[in-house]
Amino acid sequence: MSAVVDIRPALEVTGLRKEYRLRGAGGHRTLTAVDGVSFELRPGETVALVGESGSGKSTIARCITRITDPTSGSILVGDRSMSSARPRELPELYGSVQMVFQDPTSSLDPRKSVRATLDEPLRLHTALPRAERVDRIRELMADVELPEHLIDRMPRQLSGGQRQRLGIARALAVEPEVILLDEPTASLDVSIRGQIIALLERLQDEHGIAYLFISHDLEVVRRIADRVLVMYLGTIVEEGPVDAVFDSPAHPYTRSLLSAAPVAEYGRTKTRVKLAGEIPSPIDIPRGCRLVGRCPIAQETCSVASPPLLLVSDGHLAACPVVVAAPGHGHD
After folding, report:
1. Does residue 332 lie in a domain region?
2. pLDDT of 303 strictly over 50
3. Domain span at residue 308?
4. Beta bridge partners of 230
5. How many domains does the structure of the chain reveal?
6. 14 strand-pairing partners
7. Residue 291 is inside which H or E element, if any?
8. What angle, 0 to 180 degrees and rounded to 10, lies between the N-to-C axes of helices 190-207 and 160-172?
9. What's the predicted TM-score (pTM) here?
10. N or C: which end of the chain has fewer CB within 10 A?
């Protein structure tokens, strides 16, 4: 894990909302992918976003980078507004925030060599002359441990791990404050995943980059993250220091998610916390707590209003007044 410095946030997201208008036989309907999400990311910190597919994790990353425009809310990168920036202002802001995608094969231009892939962001976002760009490309390759003899290879001539290293080098090229990592190891062989995580940890230590780390792999999250945000159906239902959330999960959804994760130790088992039914559609979100129809401890009041995040312990919050008010929990 990184050493966190307590200064202004590298990234601050406030009230982020993303809706999609759908047209069908019954007229227009609204799909709410992200609903009022707020969090901050400090320099040198790793915050993980976890949750099942469809919870809104990747949509948040796409809104932050303006791949898709948010419906409402504020996104600040340092002291610059990403959410209100005009299209012509975005290239300058991309010098502060970059993204590494899940599938390096589809995120790399198959027609561009390693050299051309790394030269492009340097040419577009820096004032380096050509000779200095050549030196910078070699530095980037060394930084991500890509052998220099691969400099004129095409993506199809690289292994999966080498392609992801190239994607990381491309993100590093403009020396960003923040890198968004969307399932960066999911498409890699198990033997390569550990190498990429170790690489990301080293780069963070050396460059002080803040990571927003999106992942289904809870074992990797526990290793790399300082804090974790648990998402369900477009909202954050629990957040806090990764050890506090993983060791003492408060929200029933978090308990279920962690109990379903594979156990690394042979012979060790854990009690499965099961939720009833399926995840509701983001087109037809339940009133009140979004887990109300699936939760094993739901009470009548849970269907009345959406619960706020409540303090469980220092820095640890959960959107479940039933659990927070129970014996063993409280406002520390």
Report:
1. yes
2. yes
3. 252-332
4. 50, 238
5. 1
6. 74
7. none
8. 20
9. 0.90
10. C
Token pair of 253, please?
Answer: 């959804």
- Residue 259 is given by DSSP the state H
Burial-class residue 108 by CB neighbours within 10 Å (0-12, 13-18, 19+): buried
What dihedral angle (degrees, nearest 10) is formed by the CA atoms of 180, 56, 16, 226? -50
Residue 22 CA, chain-centre distance (Å), reads: 26
CA–CA distance, 312 with 319 (Å, rounded to integer): 10
pLDDT, tens digit, 9 for 90 and up, residues 111-125: 999 999 999 999 988
Give the residue carrying structure tokens 């506090």.
Answer: 244
The answer to whether residue 106 is domain-embedded is no
User: Does 319 fall in a domain?
Assistant: yes
The answer to whether the beta carbons of residues 216 and 50 sit under 8 Å apart is: yes
- Rounded CA separation 257/259 (Å): 6
Q: Are 285 and 34 in contact (CB under 8 A)?
A: no
Instruction: Give the whole-angstrom CA distance, residue 63 versus residue 48.
Output: 16
Using CA atoms of 100, 191, 186, 200 in order, give the dihedral in degrees to the nearest 10: -30
Cα 152 to Cα 76, 112, 113, 149, 170: the distances in Å are: 37, 9, 5, 7, 15
83 within domain boundaries: no
Q: What is the pLDDT of residue 267?
A: 44
